[in-house]
From TrEMBL:
It comes from Arthrobacter pigmenti. This is Alpha-1,4-glucan:maltose-1-phosphate maltosyltransferase. It catalyses: alpha-maltose 1-phosphate + [(1->4)-alpha-D-glucosyl](n) = [(1->4)-alpha-D-glucosyl](n+2) + phosphate. Maltosyltransferase that uses maltose 1-phosphate (M1P) as the sugar donor to elongate linear or branched alpha-(1->4)-glucans. Is involved in a branched alpha-glucan biosynthetic pathway from trehalose, together with TreS, Mak and GlgB. Coiled coil: none annotated. Homodimer. One of its GO terms (molecular function) is hydrolase activity, hydrolyzing O-glycosyl compounds.
Amino acid sequence: MDADLRFGRIPITRVSPVVEGGRFPAKAIPGSDIVVGATVFREGHDQLGASAVLLNPDGSEIQRTRLTPLGAGTDHYEGRLRPGSVGLHTFVIEGWADLHGTWHHNATVKIAAGVDIELMLEEGAVLFADHASARPRDEAKVFRSAADRLRDTELPVDERLAAGESAEILSAIQREPLRALVTRSPEYPILVEREAAGRGSWYEFFPRSEGATYDPASARWTSGNFRTASERLPAIAEMGFDVVYLPPIHPIGTTHRKGPNNTLNAGPGDPGSPWAIGAPEGGHDAIHPDLGSFDDFNAFVNRAAELDLEVALDLALQASPDHPWVTEHPEWFTTRVDGSIAYAENPPKKYQDIYPINFDNDPAGLYQEVLRIVLLWVSHGVRIFRVDNPHTKPVQFWEWLIAEVNKEHPEVVFLAEAFTRPAMMHALGRAGFQQSYTYFTWRNTKEELEEYFTEVSRETPAFFRPNFFVNTPDILTEYLQYGGPAAFKIRAVLASLASPLWGVYSGYELYEHVARPGAEEYIDNEKFEYRPRDYAAAAAQGRSLAPFLTRLNEIRRAHPALGDLENLTIHTSTDPATIVFSKHKDGLGEDGSDKDTLIVVVNVDPHSARECTVSLNLEALGLGMRGRNEDATFWVDDLITGQSWQWGAHNYVRLDAHVEPAHILSVRRKP
């Protein structure tokens, strides 16, 4: 046969997840369910089947699952694979002639029509007899018994036919089908990375604000440091967060330093923006003297680890005019025709205190310098980097850098802070970024949320892992500015339950909502000034969302379904402000008792109570009749209020945003 033929004996097309024809690996984490699919068909009318096979990095088979046809006439099959360990795996799709399915279909049709009855029964007997020797002993006995009954002319015809579709036969064939003409697709890569690459709850805070004090007599601030910041870590851990993200901790330039609220003239005590990196004390490989030493940083990282927290460090590839790079490597910047170095701009915003990097003048030198910096922080215990504005640097550079770092340190995770065009955001994911900021922040209506949840869970998960931050120092949406406490609850529920990755910026739990006039960012912005917070007083006065955030993170940890991205299903409601989605995950047990299913119903109008009828796709919930009560209902338990209800396919819901704007319902399985 010509080896150059593109079609195998059983054609297999439209394989997924395949990124750019396999040039880039699809993404996964251990224990996650990966949706795999393909279009598989053949000539004629014989039955066929399809399987997905997961292969270890050494090429050995570790998992096989039979795919399910999606619908008549589509020829498309889907199923799920669940890798168990990290490494570069591959998968293949197998298409094959289904011998039992073809025989059973033909026999059922012909015998019902009174055509070729004995011939069809004998063909079944031969099929089972020929395959018995290749089956395990118990199955071989079942196959031979079926062959004998198919040939037993003393039995009624319907009983003889039934012998070829008994529960024992179907169970054996489900485990190992009777296959012929097996055709394999090419192997496609799946990169399975550690859990933190695809699951986690992030908390952002500024170390300099924690423990900062103000002296009214001198009108001067004293900065917080790593020692005082470490005192905040137990509270963050108690809220159930996994990652503590720190904005840049490096020396800050004084030239064109920004003052409060991004003003152009900083006072002598104004700390400046941490993103204006570089001063005589050093650049990206140094620590701001006010924060402490490397020993202090190491102690901070170690304290976080004791609390099961990881430290994520900001990687902002830019420089203040005082950065050592400016004098040592002026070629790394863009010089304008008047001899000045171009500062950063994102019209209408201007960042006169920041010089962007030019990656074209000396790429070899610059690439190696950034690699050195990243590896320096890795040597101090940092395994996660939140990368500032990666879309303003060449994608090729990120592909190289992440590959170089992950070559020796595959556990290192990079988060792209890329609020930009979809093509760039997706390219960064293909290039190696394990996760990314998203448009979630600006998706607030039911229609917007449904569309976006469907996109990130069904269309792009092979290369784009969304981290749903509810706010950032730069982003305080009108929804939060004017939605009151209910808005903060609503956004936290949506972010924490729709995506395995979510995050908050400190102050969210205090309902901070006042924006700088005319802007979508906080007034008295922490980027430009110290902002210590009295969390204890807020909690004592009942003004803290911390208990609610804690409960959300508890729910996330207790329910495996919430750790997957591709299992989100949108359900319908009759109210334009009530969104309904579910997360479902099958367990490993055969009785279905270890299935995990949550239904999330959210009133996204923070100002009112809403009523509606919720209609559920019971198949997406893994609820066949076996999993329901005799009257076709099932029990759900609200994980926020503790209430329980009997639900069915259609259910009345009333959610008052000022009481509890959401139901988080766990489906109770029959014992």
